Amino acid sequence: MLSQLLIKTFIKKDTRDSYGFLASIVGILTNSLLFIIKLFVGIITKSISVTADAFNNLSDATSSLITMLGFKLASKPADKEHPFGHGRLEYLSGLVVSFMVIIVGFEFIKSSYQRITNPVPVNFQTIPFILILLSIGTKIWLSRFNNYVGKKINSSALQASSYDALGDVFTSSCVALSLIASKWISFPIDGYIGILVSLFIMYSGYSLIKETLNPLLGEAADPDLVDKIINGVLSYKYITGVHDLIMHNYGPGKFMASIHAEVPQDISLVQIHEIIDRAERELSENLNIVLVIHMDPINTNDEEVNFALEELEKIIKNYPLITSLHDFRMVGEGERKNLIFDIVIDYKQPLTEEFQCNIVESLNKDIKNIHPEYNAIITIDRDFM
């Protein structure tokens, strides 16, 4: 209810930047308030775990600030030096936040260890304890708010913040339990809970690093988007097959894709070019991507070609590492002919020179056992999806 009220009140333009800016401001204000409250509780109760949790909230506030700057910089329009825009700056801002989170966690591991070796009594008080419980409820709401906005604008940074806030619910709950336990236990549980909280903070930082590094390193595309592109291209007339789909990520919601489409070789070039142009234009608009389609003409009306392809597909089934074949064509006159095609190798198999030579030699041998007059010219390919 509160999330909807905030969006209705402060979102004047239904843009990705507006939602990102609102979520960042909410994160900064909420986490700053929680930092002040928990720092006060930590000082009053002399609890290192509460203090560690307070600075965890401070790092979250800083994260929201950097996320806001990331949204601002990432929204800069494309220019001569960056023709696809500045969207990847959002990932870089997330990377900075991730390292800051790890540093905070490491520092409080040291402080918590010192508390174990040099115990200090924890003073349980009712009002500070109630404040900790209220902070847990606040973090639950913040997690749901970030998740809602993150899904709405497809922001991995905000969705990561949602999981981070949910993790804070766990750490704050542990802190609350340690405060209660301190009433009856002389054992330095506060220091051990502080280490637990700090390790969780560092794990959150590691998870955030992985989350932001993957798109920068070129992670595989979302399978749902891949299916939409493939099925979308195949839905157009005369396109009988697709392969070699490659996608590039230039920031959240900014993708460029290229794909090869197999079309009959005997169709009018002007006619199929019009179809390909329309497919590029319509799918780019519908899927919010930049799509480029390359035409691969294939012979679909020759009985000998189709029969050879059927036999080759049967041979390929004996090779588990070959996931598919494409661009099949037959070249030559008379009895002697070349079968030219590409095979796609499972990504788990390293493409060593020895492996490539062996599989090409083995396929040629299998083909010649059936048709001695055929010679296979094979290109080894990868599935980038």
Automatic annotation (TrEMBL):
Chain ranges of the Cation efflux protein cytoplasmic domain: 222-297
Segments passing through the bilayer: 20-41, 89-109, 121-142, 191-209
SUPFAM superfamilies from the UniProt entry: Cation efflux protein cytoplasmic domain-like, Cation efflux protein transmembrane domain-like
Keywords carried by this UniProt record: Membrane, Transmembrane, Transmembrane helix, Transport
Superkingdom classification of source: Bacteria
Cross-referenced InterPro entries: Cation_efflux (IPR002524), Cation_efflux_CTD (IPR027470), Cation_efflux_CTD_sf (IPR036837), Cation_efflux_TM (IPR058533), Cation_efflux_TMD_sf (IPR027469), CDF_Transporter (IPR050291)
Subcellular localization(s) per the UniProt record: Membrane
Membrane topology of this protein: Multi-pass membrane protein
Cation efflux protein transmembrane domain ranges (all copies): 25-217
Principal cellular location given in the protein's record: membrane
Protein family per UniProt: Belongs to the cation diffusion facilitator (CDF) transporter (TC 2.A.4) family.
Name of the protein in its database record: Cation diffusion facilitator family transporter
Organism: Clostridium malenominatum
